[in-house]
Amino acid sequence: MMAKKGHFWIFLVNIAVFLLCIALSGTVAMDLSIKNATPLILLPLITAFSVFYPLGTNAVVGLLTGAALDSISGNSYCFNTIFFMLAGVVIYLIANNLFNKNLWAVTVMSGIISVSYYFIYWIVFNAFGRGIGNSLIYILEYGLPSAVYSTVFAIPLYYLYRHINKVRNK
Q1: Cα 24 from Cα 19, distance rounded (Å)
Q2: From the DSSP assignment, how many helices (H) and strands (E) are in the chain?
Q3: φ, ψ dihedrals at 34, nearest 5°
Q4: CA–CA separation, 87 vs 117, rounded Å?
């Protein structure tokens, strides 16, 4: 009976963390931007979450997180839904088959996922629409700095989910 009660509180903490990060991503009042770099905190969040949770959970959480981000962004045409769902699955597979579940691995995976997100977003929405030469400024001035800035958030999120995983496995 205690395990089920504890899992309910862990579920509520996870929901609260995801809702807070979604609110930070979509709120202008709490802007975390530094010059041109705007972090997408949901990328390191899905990375830290996916390392410690099973495959099916990661796919569903990635799908719901991407759908929430699509609903507040307005112009991504389900891009975030697909990307976050695939990211959750890929991160789980990489974490369980190639890397250890440590801070270094989570930070590297978060960096790779962040750079991949901004690069694929640039290819899908900017490169073909405006031409590669005219839209290259997006990836250089916005995408790469934002990916690096987003990766910084992987560190506290890793420690949060490592602690949640220890409590969950008691």
Answers
A1: 9
A2: 9, 0
A3: -125, 110
A4: 9
The better pLDDT of the pair 98, 84 is held by 84
Are 72 and 26 a contacting pair, CB within 8 Å?
yes
Amino acid at 27: T
Chain position carrying tokens 């790779």: 112
Amino acid at site 67 = A
What phi and psi, each to the nearest 5 degrees, are found at residue 138?
-60, -50
Distance of CA 31 to the CA centre of its chain: 17
Does 134 score more than 70 pLDDT? no
Q: How many residues does the chain have?
A: 170
91, two tokens: 């991160």
Q: Give the pLDDT confidence of 142-161 residue by residue, as tens digits.
A: 788 889 888 999 999 999 99
- Backbone dihedral angles phi then psi of residue 37, each to the nearest 5 degrees: -90, 120
Q: Quick one: tokens of 57?
A: 């959970």
- Looking at the DSSP assignment, which residues form a beta bridge with residue 37? 34
Instruction: Answer yes or no: are the C-beta atoms of 45 and 20 closer than 8 Å.
Output: no
- Count CB neighbours of 26 within 10 A: 14
Residue 136: Cβ-neighbour burial (10 angstroms; 0-12, 13-18, 19+): middle
